[in-house]
Amino acid sequence: MTTIIRDAESLQACVGKLPGPRDLKVIDFIDAHAQRWIGSAPFAFFAFARGDALTISAAGGARGFVCVVDPHTLRLPRAALDRDADAQAGASFGSLFLSPGLGETLRVNGRVAAVDAETVTLVVAECYLHCAKALMRSAFWDSAPLDDAPTDSRALLAASRFMALATVDDQGRVDVSPKGDPAGALLQWHDGSAWYADRPGNRRVDSFRNILTQPRVAALALLPGATTLLTLHGRASIISDAPLASAFAVDGRVPRLVTQIDDLRLATAESAALRCARLWPAAPADEQLDPAATFAAHVKLSKTRGLAAGIARAALSVPGLMDKGLQHDYKNNLY
Fold it and tell me: What is the dihedral of CA 287, 292, 296, 302, to 10 degrees?
């Protein structure tokens, strides 16, 4: 039986309760940990929303191509974007920064303050680290350079193992979420629509919450190792359907929900940003970056208050607890 999820209560019943305060790891500025992450990143996804328009672009260059001007301001070179025309003053933005060799990704959201001939100036409203599961499931950094990736949209859709999904909330704020799976389990084509599965992650359900109020989505999908990107635009619906979900099973684990993207527009193109970033073979991970320490620092810096938040902060005083928790989650809750 197919059920369309239309409200937050039905959604929560399917995905389960969020383990702890939702924004406990979210800060509203670029701290020292996030600055090092951005400084190590040769590649990022940037989504922009203004009015009814929602677009997403790859951005790449040398490590640190995005400049941290101050804790609340980033400077993005227009030339680093595959689609620089989408960055317009007043638009909201969402971004996802990748650092070679590390599965965690840094999510930074806010608004575009100004655009000139060379630079996009961004004001930061949210900053937080995302868990490593999407990149782990896609074997993102284990890939070798590929010269023969599919160029046909449907073929690349079927072969893709990683996707950056952009959604927007009812206030026009953009979020970019990472999705990763083995080829054939990330994206599938059914009856003229693209489908993808829900997998365990941060359990913040940002994308789902946004889709319930603003169903338009934009995404970039890729086959790690290749420099061809698949762009998807359409309208999303969250579906509970056992037969469809079974088609996305990995290691016997069947997802609880799948998402359908219809009114679909697909396009493939070579990405100058991916070529400039030179992600594969992956460079050694930056030894100064410690995901567990970053998570712990952001929990301590977050403005979220309450009993649960206080207990979580107190627990972080136990040496190694955050790292042990992450490794346990990555090992036992990958699917």
Answer: 90
